[in-house]
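User: Hello! My lab partner asked me to get a predicted holo structure for this protein. The small molecule is flavin-adenine dinucleotide, SMILES included with the sequence. Please write out the C-alpha cells.
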Amino acid sequence: MPGDPFVVVGGGLAAARAVEALRGEGFDGDLVAVTSEPHRPYERPPLSKAYLRGQEDRENIFTLDEDWYARHDVDLRTSTTVVGLDPAAHRVTFADGSGLPYAKALLATGSAPRALTVPGRDLGGVHYLRTVEDADRLAGTLLPASLEGSGQVVVIGDGWIGMEVAASARELGLDVVVLGRGAHPLGVLGPELGELYGTLHQERGVRMHRQAEVVRLTGGNGQVTGVDLADATHVEATVVVVGIGVTPNVGLARAAGLELRAHELGGGLAVDGYLRTSHPDVHAAGDIASVPSPHYERPLRIEHWAAALDQGKHAGLAMLGAAEPYDLLPYFFSDQYDVGMEYKGYVDVRSPGYEVVVSGSATDRELVAFYVRDGRVEAGMAVNVWERMDDVERLIRADGPVPREELEGFVG
Ligand SMILES: Cc1cc2nc3c(=O)[nH]c(=O)nc-3n(C[C@H](O)[C@H](O)[C@H](O)COP(=O)(O)OP(=O)(O)OC[C@H]3O[C@@H](n4cnc5c(N)ncnc54)[C@H](O)[C@@H]3O)c2cc1C
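Assistant: Hello! Below are the C-alpha cells for the protein in complex with flavin-adenine dinucleotide.
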C-alpha cells in the first residue's frame, strides 16, 4: 500500500535495470531487491563464452557495481527466495516464512533450464548452464581437460546455448559432438541460416548428429561415459552439457492467480504495454514476460539479453507511471568462434511462406539476411556486419514491401 516498498524479484539483468531505472527516475521510496542467488544481479551471456573459457573475470558479469545498491539505498537481499505473492493483500512471502508488504512489485524471475528425463540423467559429469556456479562447475571440467588434451564433450541440444558451448569447448581444443533433434542446428533461424552455423561448426571440427533422439546416458562409477541414441548409435562422452531449452519461472505468478499467456502464443506471464500483469500493481519483465508487440500485432516472449535490459528499464519507469507503451523490436546476439551475429525482429520460421534474401557473402560469412514475407521484411540478421541494425529496423518498420534490389544491395 502507499508508503510500502517497491519490491523487485529477480537476480538477472531485468531486475538490475529496473532498480537502476527506479532510482534514476527519482523514486525515493523504500526499494527492496530480492534474489535467490547468493550474489547481486548479473548477466548470463558470458557464461557460455569468454567466462566459460576462463578469459573473463567474474567481476565483469555483474550489471551494477557492488556498492551501487548501498549508495542508492536499495535493500538487496541475496540468497532469498520469494515463495508466495498475494496481489490482493500486496504482500510477498519468503522461504523462511517471513513476509513483506509492497506498494508495487516487479517479477523478473527469468527462466530455468529444461531437464533431461531419460535414464542416466543424474550421473556425474552431466551439466546444465544457467548460473555462474553452473559455469564454474563446467569450466572446472573443461579447462583441466583442455590442458590434458583429453576428453570428449557431448552437447545435447543444438540451440543457442548448446552451439555456444560447443564453440567454446572447441576453442579450448576439446573434441566436441553436438546431438541435435532437428534437420539443422538453431531451428529458430530456419534451414538456410541454421545451416550456416552447421557448416561453421563442422569446419571447426565439431561432429554434428542431426535428428538425434537421446534415449539414455550410460555411466560407470556414477560418472557419465556416453549417450545412447534411438537409432542405436552410442556416442562416448567424458562430459555432457544439456542445452534443450528453458522454461519461464512463472510458478509464483501462476499460484498468485495472475493471467498467463496461452502456450501457442509463447506462454509466460501476460502483461500489457506498461508491463503490468493482470494485477495493476504487479509488473513483469525479461524472460517471463509476454509483451504485446504493436508492430507484429501479437504478444512476444523473448528469452534474450536485450529484452531483459529494455523491459527491466521500461518496467521501472512504468511502475512510476513514466513510460509509454513498450514498442521495441526484439533484438539478440550470439558469438561463436570469430562469427558475431546480431538479429532484429521476429519471424516464425515454422509458418510457411517466408523467404530469405541475402546481401553479402555466405562463403565469407559476412552478410545480412532478411526474412521476407509478401515483400515485407519481418526480421534481419547480420553476420560479421556491424552497426547496421538501425537500418534493418527501418526496413522492418517500412510501411509496405521493400524492393528486393534494395535488400540484395544492403551490404555495399
Ligand atoms: C549461458 C547463457 C548464455 C546466454 N547468451 C545470450 C546471448 O549471447 N545473447 C542473448 O541475447 N541472450 C543470451 N542469453 C539469454 C539471457 O541471458 C536471458 O534472456 C536473460 O538472462 C534474462 O534475464 P532475466 O533478468 O529475465 O532473467 P534471469 O537472468 O534468468 O534472472 C532471473 C533471476 O531471478 C531469480 N529468481 C527466480 N525466481 C525467484 C524467486 N522466486 N525469488 C527470488 N529470486 C528468484 C533467479 O535465481 C535469477 O537470479 C544467455 C543465457 C544463458 C544462460
